[in-house]
Amino acid sequence: MFKTKNDLSEATRVKAIELLNARLADCKDLQTQTKQAHWNVKGPHFIGLHELFDKINEDVEDYVDEIAERAVQLGGVAEGTARVVAKRSSLPEYPLNAVDGRSHVEALSTALAAFGKSARQAIDQANELHDLDTADILTDVSRGVDKWLWFVEAHLQADR
After folding, report:
1. pLDDT in tens, 80-123
2. 18: in domain
3. Cα–Cα distance measured from residue 86 to residue 24, given in angstroms and rounded to the nearest whole number
C-alpha cells in the first residue's frame, strides 16, 4: 500500500482495492472479448455489428481506466496485465470458433451479462465497506454495461 491522505481506513482501502482488481480483471477480459467479436464477425450484418462492437469496446476501455485508477487512488496497484487478467477473470471463455453475427451476439451478450452481474455485486460490497465513491464508479460502469447489453441483445430479440 502506498501512503495517502484519503480518509478511508487502510483496512477499508485494502478490501476495496482487492474488489477493484477483481473487477478490473473481468473488465479487461470483457474488453478483449469485445475486440474478438469486432475483429472476427462475418455475415450480412457485418458492418452494423462491427461498428457496434467497436463502440462497446471504447466504453469498456473507459471503464477499465476508471476501475484501475480508483484502485491506485486508494493507495493500491492496478493489476491489469494480460497474465493477471487471464488468471483472475470470472467471465466465461469467449468461443474462438464464433464467426457469424448471431454467434458473436450470443457470446458477447453472455460476457456483458456476466460482467454486469459481478459489477452489481461489487457495488453492494463497496457499499458495505462504506466506500461510496467506489460504489458510484461501479454503478456508472454497471449502468453502461446494461445499456450495451440491451443494444447487443436487441439483435437476438427480433426473432421472437
Report:
1. 999 999 999 999 999 999 989 999 999 999 999 999 999 999 99
2. yes
3. 11
CA dist 75 and 17 (Å) reads: 8
**2 assigned to some structural domain:** no
pTM, rounded to two decimals: 0.95
Q: How far apart are the first and last CA of the chain?
A: 52
Is residue 7 helix, strand or coil?
coil
**Residue type (1 letter), 46:** F
What is the spatial distance between Cα 111 and Cα 104, in angstroms, rounded to a whole number? Answer: 10
Helix (H, G, I), strand (E, B) or coil at 61: helix
> For residue 75, what are the domain limits?
10-157
For residue 1, is it within any domain?
A: no
- Within a domain: residue 31? yes
What CATH number corresponds to the domain at position 29?
A: 1.20.1260.10
